[in-house]
Amino acid sequence: MRVKVSKGKTIAQVVKDGLCTGCGTCVGTCPVDAIEMVVEHKRGIYIPQLDEEKCNQCGLCFEVCPGHAVDFKQLNLEIFGKEPEDVLIGNYLNCYIGYATDYNIRYNASSGGMVTALLIYALEQGMIDGALVTRMKKDKPLEPEPFIARTKDEIIEAAKSKYCPVPANIALKEILMAKEGERFAVVGLPCHVHGIRKGEMVNPKLRERIVLHIGIFCGTNTSFLGTEFQLRRMGIRGEEVAKLNYRGEGWPGSMTVELKSGQRKLSELYYYYYDSKFCSFVSWRCSVCTDQASELADVSLGDAWLPEVTETDKVGSSIIVARSKTGDDILQQAADKGEIELRLVRAEKVIESQRGFLGKKKDSKARLNTSRRLGKKVPVFSSQLLSPSVWSYFLSGLLYSESFLASKRYCWGLLNVYCSLLGYIGRLKSKLGL
């Protein structure tokens, strides 16, 4: 299905309304290179900057933007041929627990190395010519670098989660400029997948060239202020950092910082903080997203937060949702070749494993309603939302209160005490097996 592009509105309207997700789709698909992503340092997020002189008012950037609207009903029908029966996790064919069989890949990734192993398998089998992934910049180690990986080493280089804003879809431009007949995989958070799917509706070349969509589960993403805050807690100045890994080295992993002096510092507190139900350093637009499980991907995955896994697995495993035949086929083929281990599980296990993060889905209507009452413009979604509870409204209010405090650097002393308490509670829960 090809969507008719209407002229007039541009990405500038989305930014003005405060609805930008920072995904970079507008940059990656603009036919006249009139947009670039820039960091807004006060809020610690990426926003698109439109060059009015270059812009030809084609309206494409507005059409592909997932920030102001995502028609989940239409996209589910287009991609999967039906609307999802499960409101929490979306359409699916099969669910699994799995991990990469290569120990080094598994140990050094975020949750079992599944994404890395699948991409390497697809590349070596000739299914794809490259993959849209993200690494941290060598010259600016606190900033992400989306790119098209074309070798095994480049895919491995992009392993591990990046708990910071990532405009991944700026790399769509490389896919559009690639040689005829080349095929690609894409990896991203729900907002990235939303933008790619919307882009495929208006640009047949994207639809032809992207043959595999891998989505990462996302409770909420963290602004650059979150990284700055954690570095301060570790006694590190940003200019001292030579290399930063948010995850890796086993499960659940640690935040590891290598300094220019050669010193290496590690913090597990960051992960306990990030795993809390209230992520303070979250942008407002991110907080009203209704998609936790990357519902529009071919394969979606995240950490397997299940007692039977976490009690014994200190290397890493993923909970996996195969949504399309394409996604399920590549999982089965990679398992048959011995590149990954897979164990079939019921969909209820996915929900159980993501119970803490699925609050994003369960509370989304309350967050949208709260935002409206605060006078904010909200995105238009066509997905089915659960009726909010009083608790959902309480959590929404708490989230916005914390986000407000986190946005003010002079409040970080109080926030530091709060996060230290969360870290203590997290470790205590682990010891007690809760």
Task: Describe what this molecule looks like in 3D.
With 434 residues, the chain is an alpha/beta fold. The protein has 20 helices and 15 strands. It has helices at 11-16, 25-29, 60-64, 72-80, 103-108, 114-124, 152-157, 172-176, 190-202, 204-209, 224-233, 269-274, 284-287, 307-310, 325-336, 347-353, 359-362, 364-373, 390-406, 412-432, and strands at 35-40, 45-50, 69-70, 94-100, 130-136, 144-149, 184-188, 210-216, 241-245, 255-259, 264-267, 299-303, 318-322, 340-345, 380-381. It has an eight-stranded mixed beta sheet. Strand 5 (130-136) and strand 6 form a beta hairpin. Residues 269-278 have low confidence and may be disordered.
Low-confidence stretches: 269-278
| Beta strands, count | 15
Radius of gyration based on Cα positions? 20 Å
Mean pLDDT across the residues is 90
Shape: globular
Strand content: 15-25%
Q: Which structural class do the helices and strands define?
A: alpha/beta
Adjacency order of strands in the biggest sheet: 6-5-7-8-12-13-4-14
Q: What percent of residues adopt helix (DSSP H or I)?
A: 25-40%
**Largest β sheet strand count, sense and barrel closure:** 8 strands, mixed
Query: Termini, distance in Å?
Result: 48 Å
Our count of helices gives: 20
Strand and helix layout:
Layout: H1 11-16, H2 25-29, E1 35-40, E2 45-50, H3 60-64, E3 69-70, H4 72-80, E4 94-100, H5 103-108, H6 114-124, E5 130-136, E6 144-149, H7 152-157, H8 172-176, E7 184-188, H9 190-202, H10 204-209, E8 210-216, H11 224-233, E9 241-245, E10 255-259, E11 264-267, H12 269-274, H13 284-287, E12 299-303, H14 307-310, E13 318-322, H15 325-336, E14 340-345, H16 347-353, H17 359-362, H18 364-373, E15 380-381, H19 390-406, H20 412-432
Parallel strand pairs: 3-15, 5-7, 7-8, 8-12
Antiparallel strand pairs: 1-2, 4-13, 4-14, 5-6, 9-10, 10-11, 12-13
